[in-house]
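Sequence in, structure out. First:
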Amino acid sequence: MMVGPLTFRRVNHHRSEFKWWIPAFLSFRQTILVAVWFTIFAVLFIWQKNLIDGLLMFRRPPPRPIPKLRPVAFNLTDFGGVGDGRTLNTKAFEEAISSISKLEKIGGGQLNVQAGYWLTAPFNLTSHMTLFLAQDAVILAIQDEKYWTLMPPLPSYGFGREHPGPRYGSLIHGQNVTDVVITGHNGTIDGQGKAWWDKFRQKRLNHTRGPLVQIMWSSDIHISHITLRNSPFWTLHPFDCKNVSVTNVTILAPVVGAPNTDGIDPDSCENMVIEDCYISVGDDGVAIKSGWNQYGITYGRPSTNILIRNVVIRSMVSAGVSIGSEMSGGVSNVRVENLHVWNSRRGVRIKTSPGRGGYVRNITYQNVMFDNLRVGIVIKTDYNEHPDEGYNPKAVPVLEDISFTGIYGHGVRVPVRINGSEEIPVKNVTFRDMSVGITYKKKHIFQCAFVHGRVIGTIFPSPCENLDRYDEQGQLIKRSELQNISNIDYDF
C-alpha cells in the first residue's frame, strides 16, 4: 500500500527536474546558435576584408609626393601647362624657366612636371635649376621640324655631321649653364623620333638631326632616375662639359630602324660618371668622342677621366661601349667596369683611322660580361669616315695602354678582333683573366694585326701569337716575335 504514493512522488520529482531542464537546454542551444552565427559572421568579415585587400593589391599605389629640392618650386601648370598630349606647352616651359633664372642668389628653383603628356617644342635650361619629372610624367617632343631651332655646327665637327651648314638643336638644351639637375620618379622624355628616322632614310632632311638632350660648355650636371626614349639622333650628348653624372637612367630606342640613336655620348668632357643605367638603342650604347679630324684637332678638347660602371647595354647595330670614331681631341683615363652587353653586334670597341690624329690611352675594362655577341672586343684603325677632303691623312692617332681584366661570356662568335696597322699599331695591350665561350670553333677566333702587348696567365680562347706570354706571377714565359703579323678574318 505504500508503493503507490512513493512511486507517484518519484514521477512528480522527475517531471519537476524535466521541467527545469527544458529551459536550461533551450538556453544552452541558443547560446550555441549565437556563437555559431557570430563565428560565421567573423569568418565572412575576415574573408571579405582579405578579398578586398587582395583586390587592392592590383590597384596602382598613390603617386609619390614630389620632393622639394630647391628653395622655390613651381609646377608647370602654374604657367598654363596642359598635359593632354595635344596642347603645345613650349610657352609654359619657357616662362617657368625664366622665373627660375631670377632665383640664382637664393639657390635657384625647381620645375615640377606632373603626371600627364606634355607636348612641347625645344626649350633651354638655366643655371641652378632642377627639372623634376613626376611618376607618369611624359615630356613629348613635337615632331614637326619647323619648331626645332637651327644652331651652328659643333666647332669640333666642321661644317656638319650629316649635312653641311646649320644643325637642329636638341629638345632640351643647356648652354653655358652650371648646377643643373634633371631627375624625377622615372618620368619620361620622349623624342617621338620615328618621323625623324623615316625622313632621314628617305633623305628628306636638309640639316643634321638634333639630340634629345644636349648640354654644352657647362659644369656640374646631374641626370638621374628618368627614362629617355626615341631620340631623333644621339640621345644624351654632353659637349665640352665638366663634372657630369648620369645615374639610374633608362635609355630606349628600337634596336633596329632607329639610326644613330646612341645612348650617351660624352664629347670632349672631363670628369664624368655613368653608372647604374640600362641602355637599349639603335646604335652605340655609350660612345666617347672628342671631335672629328682636323676640326677636332684644332678644337683640342679631350675626353678624360670618365667612369662607366654597373651598366647593362643592348646594341644590335653597333657596340655596347665605343671610343670614337670621332676622337681627334684625344681620349684618356677611361675605366669601364661591371658592364653587361647582351644580344648585340659588338661588346666594346675602339674605332679610328688615319686623319683622326689624337690619342686613345689609359683605357681599362674590368669585369665585363658578353652574352650572345658577334664580336666581343674590337679595335679598328681603318674607320674611314671623314667630314670633308681637307683632313690630313698623315695625322695618325696613338693607341696605347689598354687593359682587359675579367672578361667573361658565352655565345660569342669572335671574342677578340684587334686590327692595328703599320701606320697605327696598337701598343701595350694587356689581357688577364678571360674566359669567353665561343659559338664558331674556327682557327682564328682571337684575331690580331700589328698588336704589341701581353697575356698574363691562362685565358680562353687561346690568344693570338702577336702577344707576349706571362705567368700569373708576371714572369715572362715567351716573347712574341710576330707582333706585326695579321690573322684578321672578316669572313666570320
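Second:
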Amino acid sequence: MTTTADAPTIASSAPSRISRLRVPELDELQTTAVRGFFAKQQRDEGLTSNWFRALSLNEQDLERLNGYLLPLLGADGRGGLSAREREVIATVVSGENRCAYCHTNHANKLGKVAGDWSFGQRVAIDHHQVAELTDRERALADIAVLVNNHPQSIRDGDIDRLRALGLDDHQILEGISIAAFIGATNRIGIALSVPPNVEYTGVPAADRRNTPDR
C-alpha cells in the first residue's frame, strides 16, 4: 500500500531564482561576519538558506539583522522561552502571513525541536487543532496571532492569561517581539518572492520509515 509519506518527495531540484532582486554569489561577499554566517550554516545544516541569501545583497543590513534575529530565536542558547515555544510562535505567525519560505522553514524547525515532523506541519496548518500543544504554547500562539493581525485588540486580560500560565514579563515581551519580528521577516520574504529551500520540504527519511500504511 502507498504510505501518506510518499507524496511530498517530489521536490528534487533548486528553484531557478531565490529573489526578485540580484543575489550575490557567496564568494562575492565582503563582510567577514556574513561570510562566517553562511560558512557556519553550510557546516551545520548542509545548506545556505534562500532567505538569508536574498538579504545578503545588503550585507551590512543582514549583519545587523542577524545580531537581533538569531538571539531572539534562541540561537545563542539564552534562557527565557523554550526553543519549541519560539518556533511555535514563528510557525504560527508565518502561516498567518502565508509566507512560503518562512512557513516551511519554521514548520521544519519546529518538527526537529519537537522530535516529530508531523507536529510542526500540523501547527503550521492550524494550531487550534493540535492537541499536543501545552497551555503555554497555545496561549503564546494565540497572542502571536493578535500581535500579527490585530495588535490594537490586545487587552490586559491577554497578558494576564500568560502570567497565569507561569510566564514572567521578560518572557511575555520576548514572545511579543518574536511575533512582531517574524511578521517583518515574512513581509520581506513575500516581497522578494523567496522560495523555501527544497531541504525544508518533504517528509524526512526517518519519519517516512515510521509512518504506517493507510
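Remark: DSSP finds ten helices and no strands in the chain.
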